[in-house]
Design brief:
- The protein is an alpha+beta fold.
- Helix content is 32%, strand content 28%.
- A hairpin with a 4-residue loop joins strand 3 and strand 4.
- Helix 1 packs across helix 9.
- The two termini are 20 Å apart.
- InterPro entries: YheC/D.
Amino acid sequence: MDSTTLGFLTLNLNHENKYVTEIAKRSLHYKIECVRFEPTSISPANLEVKGEHYDHSAKEWMSSVFSIPPFIYDRCFYQKNQLSQKSKPIVEWLKNYHKTTFLGQGLPDKWKIHKALQKDSILSCYLPQTILVKDSVQIQQQLAAQGACLLKPINGSKGLGIFAVKLEKKFILLTYHIGRDKQNRKFPSLQEFGDWCQKLLQQNDYLLQPFLSLQDTQGYPFDIRLLLQKNEEGNWCLRGKGIRKGYYGSFLSNLNTGGESLIFEDWFNSLTAHNQVLVNDELKTISDRLPTILEGNFPNLFELGVDIGFAKDGSLWILDINSKPGRKVILQTKPNLEDTLYEAPLTYCRFLKKQSSLKGVEPIE
């Protein structure tokens, strides 16, 4: 098969430097040249790109000018800043450009994902009750009925912008994270809390969910991370499972909010035999069914990070799904999967190249 080029698209050339470099180191065997570039580095006049290519002899990235690569691995993570606002429309244009194929097109916001999964009779059983918040009254009603709730922004990852709300005897307690630091805020009245909610909802769209008890036997928050990817034949496979454990008193287990990675088997072996059978069966159901259902609604995908909560009553809950997952949890707990994970984008890129060659046309997404 002829050689081709895979481009890593990032908002900053050095973002995920180790990850993209490890992939690039292995690319020669697959006859793939690796380049990396930013959306804003494309010249509108001649569609030339100023970026970097990986030089195997020098074993480093070198400044380079090249055409828009035929295959693109999108690793752009947007924030509320000018660079993100400028980059987003360029990335959308690239996704529709007839000479490019993205390894994965990505997922929409959490509400659209929820609605798509809700239609499936099997996967809907694993979804926490979720409401798209229209006003603060809905939040107050949930608090009155259940005593606690969770507010999640419809866009976002890594636990950013998530609020836990609890109704105490004399105040409403709001808990959230700024990085690893847990913050608390108290509202002495419903009126004050409602005013704060209205301001919050003017800034972002939020989802309202029950506050699930997702703690281990010692009271530490934790969840199960599944990494799903397409293999060299274009079929979905479960690459690995790991456990993310938060610190005591936190309600999040994300690594950037202070969580740590634990070996899945160590946690699994601590379960009763009955629970082991149930967990195995349900994780298999989720990992087998979820990617197919999602891709039926949002083509085309390459990889998914799925966070699963395990409640004290043994029930499993789909907490979050990310189409641009990290792999730190899997790499830290399963170092033997290193080559597999670093080569996965290359093997799938080669599969897409083969598919486009069979069609006898330029790769079109």
